[in-house]
């Protein structure tokens, strides 16, 4: 196990995971489990950068764990844990803050977007969020970080911080590489196909959750915004159709060219029916497993307890090194 390369990734428990999260990230997480030593976390510390109802956050975090497992993450193969259980994340984040420039964080497009939405109540955590994300990654000496396209800039910062720390204090961190799928790295909103699909969208018709019931899936795909060109072609001029084709391709394994050929001369109605069916069938086993897992809270507790234990050991080791290098006196324990 030790000679395997390391992967770390995570998702926010700020609602149900979406088809975007699944196709952009989780599907890869599952596929990479055998080949890599994987750490997958539920990033609850990140989630409080926007206001959360405490009881919803608790429920969403546990449900996110059930969704991870339902997608195929296996606690026998991967370390699956809740971020706030491993306090080294917040601790390393503080140290990394001290080598991060305000200008770097100001350039983050996700911060710019999110801050526009909550201008009245901008909190400092939203600003330093990418530093915490860098801490998540660097604590485990990750080689590879499987994410969707929207996280690329954050990952670039993690790389810069790793290199900067290494230059200033001597070699400490692995410099991680992003792992982004060729198709499906950016699944778009079903209502505004020029915007990414997001679990925090106010319009529920804009996204499909990975545990959505079949009727809702069919309804949402029927309502998905398309265009008036009336042809099924993968091009930027038709962002709605392009998005549906991407989803279809990722879930069915058919190439974009095959799909174009299959629907040559056919209408949007028929295409949408088929897309909906592929999604319903693709997500069915996930939803069924998820519902089963939710009945077994004890099992979920065991998984996150074991995960935190394993993650903690690795994270502490890195943090100890970091503390030593920056000049903190190691703590002495009374007998
Ligand atoms: P989050 O919770 O927004 O999303 C989780 C993962 O899903 C991907 N994703 C998408 N992929 C394709 N199409 C979409 N519409 C779409 N929406 C989301 C994201 O790219 C991500 O991979 N900051 C991160 C969580 C995080 C993290 C980390 C990730 C915290 N620490 C360390 C990797 C490593 C986030 O908010 O993801």
UniProtKB/TrEMBL annotation:
Keywords: Aminoacyl-tRNA synthetase, ATP-binding, Cytoplasm, Ligase, Nucleotide-binding, Protein biosynthesis. It is an enzyme of class 6 (ligase). The gene is trpS. L-tryptophan binds at residue 136. A motif ('HIGH' region) lies at residues 13-21. It comes from Crassaminicella thermophila. GO terms for biological process: tryptophanyl-tRNA aminoacylation. A motif ('KMSKS' region) lies at residues 196-200. The lineage of its organism: Bacteria, Bacillati, Bacillota, Clostridia, Eubacteriales. CDD domains: TrpRS_core. It comes from the Bacteria. Catalyzes the attachment of tryptophan to tRNA(Trp). GO terms for molecular function: ATP binding; tryptophan-tRNA ligase activity. This is Tryptophan--tRNA ligase. It is found in: Cytoplasm. InterPro entries: aa-tRNA-synth_I_CS, aa-tRNA-synth_Ic, Rossmann-like_a/b/a_fold, Trp-tRNA-ligase, Trp-tRNA-ligase_bac-type, Trp-tRNA_synthetase. One of its GO terms (cellular component) is cytosol.
